[in-house]
Amino acid sequence: MAAVGGCGWAAVCEKFRTARTLSTVESRKDPETDPYRSKYSARALLQEVKQLLSAAEEGDEARLLAVRRAVLEYELGVNHTDTEELSAGEEHLQRCMQLLEPHPLSPDCVSLYIQAQNNLGILWSERDKIKTAQNYLESAEALYNQYMKEDGNPPLDPSEHFMAEEEKLTDQERSKRFEKAYTHTLYYLAQVYQHLEMIEKAAQYCHTTLKRQLEYCGYHPVEWALNAATLSQYYLSKQCFMESRHCLAAASVIFSQAGQVPSAEDTETEQDQQDLRQRKAEIARCWIKYCLNLLQSAQKLLEDNIGELDPDRQLELKAQRKKEEDEKEKGRKKAVLFGMSDVCDSVLAMEEKVSSVYPLDFQEAREIFLVGQNYVQEAKEFFQVDGYVTDHIEIVQDHSALFKVLAFFEEDYERRCKMHKRRIDMLEPICSELNPQYYLLISRQLQFELADTYYKMMDLKVAIGNRLEELDSHTIKKINSLAQFAIKYYELFLDSLRNPDKVFPEVLKEDVLRPAMVAKFHIARLYGKLITSDSKKQLENMQTSLEYYTFLVDYCEKYPDAVRAIETELELSKEMVGLLPTKMERLRAKLCPFI
Fold first, then answer.
1. Which of 411, 443, 462 lies at the terminal end of a domain, its last residue?
2. What digits encode the pLDDT tens for the residues 499-554?
3. Where exactly are the transmembrane stretches of this chain (predicted)?
4. 210 lies in which domain range?
5. CB 3.0-4.6 Å disulfide test: which of 90, 95, 339, 399 passes with 73?
6. What is the C-alpha separation between 90 and 76, in angstroms, rounded?
7. From CA 202, how far away is CA 193, in angstroms rounded?
8. pLDDT of amino acid 325
9. Do both 438 and 547 map to the same domain?
């Protein structure tokens, strides 16, 4: 086509190229006061080219013109959606597809057709019409699969329709761009399935997308790393620890590339550096969750019916370990892992720093704990309490949880006590400084956790004391002190449930029912554990204990639906409500033998 409407074809191609440059390159430099300046300039040029093509005679070149017009409609559609003019954008993208409709599977149309469907999928997602978006994207996926099955040769890239013959792309470059367009299809589908809560399918598509981005070198290291780290949390929820660890190791390795890639003219701002530090801390938090979940899952496997480590179960699992490891190694070859030949050694080295199999003793648990603790420090470097209160506290809570689960594996009661003391030392200052008016839920979590930790320490001190021939005054003082601190924090938690008039709710909401009942039950038990030589004080403690046990029994009689939340505690409470009055009568008789 030597001339188009009196204008040389080379000039037309130049206008098109300039429009593309304005849209993709120059627009990044537009000022905040005029954010779409380059986009609008690009649109004017595209409209000029469209007018020139409209003036062209069709004849034998009718199909060629139709495809070129479709390219322009596509570019205008993207331009309008980029400038938040969705209705106009949709019209142009629909016209693009209509022009291509007679031959969507031909090599000169298929890539453009898929990209138009991708953009319509995005457009409808932005309108929150997820099902419509799904239809467009699944149609694009089907078109790609059909083309690869029936033809498979690298199709033309849309930009080639406005290039001179000598400028046309190589087959290798065409293939790369076509595969990139299809990768975008899968990427958007993963998000759509996530919105539709088709979580497993979303994870599959996300994994495939990440793998393809690496394969075709079409990724931004930071974005890729964050997506891989997020995917690791899905595998974590399924207890697929090998896959979760692989995603995290790959995320860490790929993220490290971000610091190696110089930005344009080294104009990286302080904000860019801040964003990088935040992303690094977010990946560290995913590692913390990995270590914590692996340890907690192992605890569930190993604990007996009272929450202690079961030695028989431990030996049984150790005997199975060798066989399971062999099977997992075979399974690894079948697992959906990322093909990263260039960074494979780095990923493997990262994986070797932490196990993906359940720890079965203290030493194995400690190795996982130490990895998690290192990531806690890394995450806290960015998420500091000044500026990131909620994030910082969540990280500290995870740190506390790491100590809690490590203590499960520790056989020595004194050392276990010290681990719980570490938890108190990190949680208590935060709890005392937090304003419950603004952070009520977090305050409650911290109060309950502190109460629970003091409670565990008291139980351990009682167990240590039971090994002695006679309790010494120091041990008695320690047991009583721990019990009183536990009572204090349980009471603070229960007080937080009161209304502004300080009245405790008659009916507890479902989200606080169990913790409130457990707090009441534990306070009852704690008053029963207080050691005193003063019989009158002992009687007072027993009376208080009885009142708390009675609360549980009365509440469940009045609201039977609550029973399923606290069956074990209720059974023991009923037993104590039956036993305590008799014990108290005996004690009264000793105090006043003539009454």
1. 411
2. 999 999 999 999 999 999 999 999 999 999 999 989 899 999 999 999 999 999 99
3. none
4. 3-251
5. 95
6. 10
7. 5
8. 65
9. yes
